[in-house]
């Protein structure tokens, strides 16, 4: 159990000492901002150790519902600590060692009680700082403010009021899932992009076949123009085998092979393959199609403002579509 107990000390010890703001005076909270808020405060609560409940999840019981907590602990509840007496009463015939031990146990219970209630204050203070007052004002008391409002009450109010996923949120999620990816960005980021999108869909109460998610990932990878052989092998697979897990395994291996066979580490391994896309030609975001395989988006020495070093002939990323003609000085 931590020896730090004041709310400020606790906040300073948290992995997220300052929670990500969930809204502004003009932009309401939504599912994504609430999800991030819940993640951060859950992380803080779980890192603050406690012997209460099952003793394995810190103070998580203060920021999630009892139902969720019981599911995590196989039915072991958290029983809030009771404040012990300031001066414990000892039996008339108690020995000195017994008195010392009784006092020690009483001090231990007092520390547990203090930590429990200071944790409540710490989480509440963090939430009040991250949430514009207009979104939770109805929870406060006219004279006592939020002193009697628990962190869980604040979070529950936010989820009930602003946590529903709207149709527009699903459209935005679809766009995020299909966002372009290209090396040398780690392929794990693409996998996370797909996983987060799928989690969002599940949170909305819908289900997407994982083969559809794998298809989205395949389309993103194919647009890079760097995985021709791996893409062909994937297309030849039986539909039943085109699962998300197989997709990740297949293209993780292909991506590793691409990195190992790269010929230009300084320019990023995507440039080595790019020069072979069109024989004798390459692509530069600033200059367009160039008749010089050594001139790529990554190696360009005269980059225009906003130049994107990852742009290729297959994924121009908004770059020039012209054919560049070199003019000797």
UniProtKB/TrEMBL annotation:
<protein>
    <submittedName>
        <fullName>Uncharacterized protein</fullName>
    </submittedName>
</protein>
<feature type="compositionally biased region" description="Polar residues">
    <location>
        <begin position="318"/>
        <end position="329"/>
    </location>
</feature>
<feature type="region of interest" description="Disordered">
    <location>
        <begin position="296"/>
        <end position="329"/>
    </location>
</feature>
